[in-house]
Amino acid sequence: MTPSLPSEASGTAGDISDSTSGTGPGAVGEPPPKAHAADERVAPATLAHRLLVRPELGSLIGAVLVMGFFSIVADGFFTASGAATWLDDSATLGIMAVAVALLMIGGEFDLSAGVLTASTALITAMLATRADWPVWLALAVSLVFALGVGALNGWLVVRTGLPSFIITLGTFLALQGLNLGVTRQVTNSVQVSGMRATDGYESAGRFFASTMAIGGTEIQVSVLWWIVLAALATWVLSRTRFGNWIYAVGGAPVSARNVGVPVDRTKIVLFMTTAGAAWLVGSINILRYTSVQANQGIGLEFQYIIAAVIGGCLLTGGYGSAIGAAVGALIFGMARQGIVYAKWDSDWFQLFLGVMLLAAVLVNNSFRRRAERSRR
């Protein structure tokens, strides 16, 4: 006969042992039992602990300090028009930083992200201005191209086992050569312009490059794209199975594979996500400025990575947040425009980048170590 098991109403293992030993509650002559001490493993986390385990804490502190500093030293910085300026400066960088953060949490890098923004803009512009395609169709083709590049990057990384740094560096160089060579071949220059006269420009421009009036101040729609994508990425990371997979493949890929996580597919999707964000930024730029240079976007990939690192992402993967990356991009925008408002030489911005990167790495590592000790 199968022995009967204690029901859920019987309580914890300690209650069961007490009742069987004759010394538990109800034993004759025993005083009333004292309440069990709370198990420290299930004790509610304090506010300090909840803040320490958040990867974006350092970037939030940095954003407050940068905003306060330039509000004091730069006239007009902390006004409605000033905020519109530095939000606009941060938006496209923030879109890419959020996507790059997801990829970095997954343990990979994409050095082709910056130049891919120019590639997609060039494809859209050449198809619309030289082949007379409707803008929406040209945008669709450039999106397919971007997703194809992202899928190729991911596939090469998972199939060859080479570092993504090497794979995407090769893609960066190939795209840079294609951008310059094809653009010069088609236009006899390194620039494509004339988007305003194309079919569908008005409707596409309203969707990707219009402005919104908020409190009497014009805000670029790219700021809305940035906020929406940061919120969506945060939801994916914190509320979905795919978000758990991202952290798993970045933190412990072998263990993740052993428990059934589709490591290769997850990495490929992350590379495609970065490429899709590059297409969005390229589309915003070509429809807003109506022209594009073949050498545009070169060097921006490092700014995307720096923004993600400032936002709390580790270079080793498995740790970070989308909100932190968005705040990291905001720090970029505030600093770049704050230097302008303060009438300083723009060369100081490079010094600021170096200081912020080093400070972010030190602060993020400190917070992570504190969080790990608080879990023990």
Q: Describe it for me?
A:
This protein is mainly alpha-helical. It contains 15 helices and four strands. The strands form two sheets. The chain has a two-stranded antiparallel sheet. The protein is globular and about 60 Å long. The N terminus is likely disordered.
Give the secondary structure arrangement, pairings included.
Blueprint: H1 13-21, H2 47-52, H3 57-73, H4 80-105, H5 113-129, H6 135-160, H7 164-187, E1 191-193, H8 201-209, E2 211-214, E3 217-220, H9 221-239, H10 241-251, H11 253-258, H12 263-289, E4 291-293, H13 300-310, H14 322-341, H15 348-375
Antiparallel strand pairs: 1-4, 2-3
Helix pairs in contact: 3-14, 4-9, 4-10, 4-12, 4-13, 4-14, 5-6, 5-7, 5-12, 6-7, 6-12, 8-12, 9-10, 9-14, 10-12, 13-14, 13-15, 14-15
Uncertain ranges: 1-30, 34-41
Q: What's the shape?
A: globular
Sheet having the most strands:
2 strands, antiparallel
Order of SSEs: HHHHHHHEHEEHHHHEHHH
Strand content bin = under 5%
Rounded to an integer in angstroms, the radius of gyration calculated over CA atoms is 26 Å
The secondary structure category is mainly alpha
- What is the mean predicted local confidence, pLDDT? 85
Strand tally is: 4
Strands ordered across the widest β-sheet: 1-4
Helix content: 55-70%
Question: What is the rounded distance between the termini?
Answer: 43 Å
Number of helices: 15
